[in-house]
Amino acid sequence: MEVLAIIPVRAGSKGIPNKNIRPLANKPLVFYSIDAALNSKYVTRTVVSTESAEIKKIAQSFGAEVIDRPDELAQDETKTAPVLLQVLNELEKQNYVPDVVVLLQATCPLRDSKELDEAFELFFNNQQNGCDSVFAGKMLGTTHSKWRQDPDTGEYECLFDYRHRPRRQDEDRHFPLLAETGATYIVKTSVMKEVRDFIGKKPLVYFGGTGVDIDTPEDFETVAKIIEERNKQD
User: Fold this and answer.
1) Nearest Cα to Cα of residue 93 among 115, 113, 67, 111
2) What is the C-alpha to C-alpha distance for residues 32 and 35, in angstroms, rounded to an integer?
3) 107, 157, 194, 233 - which has most CB atoms within 10 Å?
4) Distance CA 78, CA 74 (A)
């Protein structure tokens, strides 16, 4: 079975300049996703999609292949799915069609090969149940407990009417909510082409991941400390 890992890495980043190649515990951020893919028991080919010559050189130095990305697919508003499909189209020209695609976002460096393989095993072990995709997720709690903060004013808003909060004993009547961590998305290639997305019609959720997605300089510092501690233990 051919399993293709795709790591989208563009040069532009408004929040953190050159985020994807910024050093994190002495390695560029993109290294960690490449390393996870190359050390997976299931991934058979690892490709980075980028429009940047610098990123291309770095990715190749760590053992990844690179598919050049058109500039129109490297804009701030570009969605991820078209980037993946462009990679598949380019590889089809080489007569290569994988059975499964896994999307690995470079901003989730704590997702290692062990975590990735656990997600694959969830996917492969549930094929007879109709599972067509797996994504890494985390629980957020029940529907009555959600708040959000306005980034401009700093004020908090409850997404549900907290004045009618149910008793703890009644919580099982409420559907728990979960969120994608962004670390891992596994999908059958045929399904991705059909739905034009990296989550299929019958997904399962892998809950064993770390769930850290780097967005800010503070995130970099936090994750760097975690990686340094991991390295000491190794």
Assistant:
1) 67
2) 5
3) 107
4) 6
For the domain covering 3-138+179-233, report its CATH number. Answer: 3.90.550.10
Residue by residue, pLDDT tens for the chain (234 residues) are 999 999 999 987 767 778 899 999 999 999 999 999 999 999 999 999 999 999 999 999 999 999 999 999 998 889 999 999 999 999 999 999 999 999 999 999 999 999 999 999 999 999 999 999 999 999 887 766 677 888 788 888 877 765 666 565 555 556 677 889 999 999 999 999 999 999 999 999 999 888 788 988 888 899 999 998 888 876
Cβ-in-10-Å burial (0-12, 13-18, 19+) of 80 comes to middle
Whole-structure pTM value: 0.89
The per-residue DSSP string of the chain comes to: --EEEEEE--S--SSSTTGGGSEETTEEHHHHHHHHHHT-SS--EEEEEES-HHHHHHHHHTT-EEEEPPGGGSSTT--HHHHHHHHHHHHHTTT---SEEEEE-TT-TT--HHHHHHHHHHHHTTGGGT--EEEEEEEEEEGGG-EEE-TTT--EEESS-GGGPPPGGGGGGS-EEEEEEEEEEEEEHHHHHHHTSSS-SSEEEE--S------SHHHHHHHHHHHHHHHHH-
State the Cα–Cα distance between residues 173 and 134, nearest whole angstrom: 26
Domain locations along the chain = 3-138+179-233
Tell me the one-letter amino acid at 185.
Y
